[in-house]
Amino acid sequence: MGIIEKIKEIEAEMARTQKNKATEYHLGQLKAKIAKLRTQLLEPPKGSSGAGEGFEVTKFGHGRVALIGFPSVGKSTLLTMLTGTHSEAASYEFTTLTCIPGIIHYNDTKIQLLDLPGIIEGASEGKGRGRQVIAVSKSSDIVLMVLDASKSEGHRQILTKELEAVGLRLNKTPPQIYFKKKKTGGISFNSTLALTHVDEKLCYQILHEYKIHNAEVLFREDATVDDLIDVIEGNRKYMKCIYVYNKIDVVGIDDVDRLSRQPNSIVISCNLKLNLDRLLAKMWEAMGLVRIYTKPQGQQPDFAEPVVLSAGRGGCTVEDFCNHIHRTLVKEVKYVLVWGTSARHYPQHCGLSQVLQDEDVVQIVKKKEKDDGGRGRFKSHSNAPARICDREKKAPLKT
């Protein structure tokens, strides 16, 4: 029996099992088994060498955005309108067969937009090049899930389920659970608040399913069984996702109003070029990019090319800003002057731990090199050796 058949068999058993207090331990063990099998499904087969079949796209720009959706929802048209890169669009499905990159120039930054082939139900199991598509989306900063406004809401649930099956958690934060394996000592289970979804017995059973018998577990929030499994697996990625509803020109105004009021959602029309500017603004807000302008000493700030930072790519502190310029600059910094919304007054003397905000101006003051104690006859000490016997003897005078 293959891995996919095992997963389907466990899912059928979970569907048959009634959900009550007596079966929650059994359901927790089944969820742990499914998570282990899906992790094995994503691993490359044993004995294989070299890189697998996928999309080779070099990272470029200050951020990366992936377009994910069913076939024929307008992903290629959206890429062409936002970036100017031509991506073939036609009235039949699976027009795009490979990954097509484009560059969005927005707010003095360059954002890479990837048009991926459409995925179908069962993509997490490898149907329709689904694994390659999802692997590229894992390397992006945010995901734009393009949906057809004229079709049912079930498409959104299907895509979310396929992405969660391969370890992507959309619009979620990592659970506040501390987990650490130990060599001895058994399992230590603690919590800082009352738990309603997980108890000590259920935690022990899930850990034993993973063959972990010595570990330390601390719950800092009322997490669920799925959150505990995600922490044990350790390969989950938490990303922001924007749900883009295209083709709003073929539905009624009531449906457009209902879709636009959903969280993390925006409605557009590529055919009539409606609301594309709001889509770029929402994308910028979700990526959290921070533009920092540099100011040389005694000169005006350079507003032409900002240094772009983000919390997902290194951080937004002064130390991260220095490392972005050169990794040896941190050791030479004496203090930093900051103008902008992150400063309390202009300019503010800051250290390396100061968190910068968008459109701040930064001037770095470096440490001065220590002199040798004066110049010429004002030197405090000579460069000659301390002992007289070590000094170079002058040649005798010729007579």
TrEMBL record:
Organism whose genome encodes this protein: Penstemon smallii
Domain TGS: 288-366
Database matches in CDD domains: DRG, TGS_DRG1
Protein name: Developmentally-regulated G-protein 2
Domain OBG-type G per the UniProt entry, residue ranges: 63-288
Region Disordered, residue ranges: 368-399
Native organism taxonomy: Eukaryota, Viridiplantae, Streptophyta, Embryophyta, Tracheophyta
Keyword terms: GTP-binding, Nucleotide-binding
Domain of life: Eukaryota
Pfam family, one: TGS
Biased composition (Basic and acidic residues): 388-399
NCBIfam families found in the cross-reference section: small_GTP
